[in-house]
Amino acid sequence: MIREKYNGESDQTVKHKFRRTGPLDAYIYKTGSDNQDVEQSQDNMMVHPIKPIIAEQDTLIPTTHIFTDGACTNNGKRNANAAWGAIIVADKDYKVLNRLSAAIPKSEPQTNQRAELQALLKGLQAAEQIDGFIKLWSDSQYAINCASVWGPSWKRKGWVKQGGVIQHLDIIKPLVNLAESMRSRIEFKWLKGHKGGDAQHQFPWMFNHQVDALATAALC
Questions:
Q1: Is residue 8 part of a domain?
Q2: Which residue in 135, 107, 138 sits closest to 212, CA to CA?
Q3: How many domains are there within the chain?
Q4: Which of 68, 96, 167, 202 has the most beta carbons within 10 angstroms of its beta carbon?
Q5: In a domain, 4, yes or no
């Protein structure tokens, strides 16, 4: 897996009342819990391990960034509320092209993990309508791995996993299928969310803060 670490930037994180899970919530899949706390990662950014066919260096191919995020109050409790947000950003001058957000329907589980997955799915669906190369940004390793690592493995095994039931399979199935169909022109990128200091005003963290606020505003 390729890692990019930005030296000289603050590693200080901003506390966020809507999250109990950190950037390494990827490991929650081992126990199947939606409300388990995990240790924060010290890395700032990670590139999706599966390289796209299109070379990023080809400046003739337009690039669009899509930032996704989920929010949840009272995660894991009966009175929880969840929502998702996505921001579409042009690579040139980082101009915001569109903002999307909505609450998770009350008929569905209200969890942070489901919100993150739904955000990534909605971002990928938006990417389907955009020409060129797409970079999908998320601060949830869990969501990215469901789309690109564990999900394809579960699919090959008939949508089963060792040690338990796959949660949120109704979102993961279309997420994996769409990601595979767009594999030639997408790249998933994880970044450490809620960075403080000067980093919060710089790309890409500035849009991570914005999409977090967008998802939070969509909470019922």
A1: no
A2: 138
A3: 1
A4: 68
A5: no
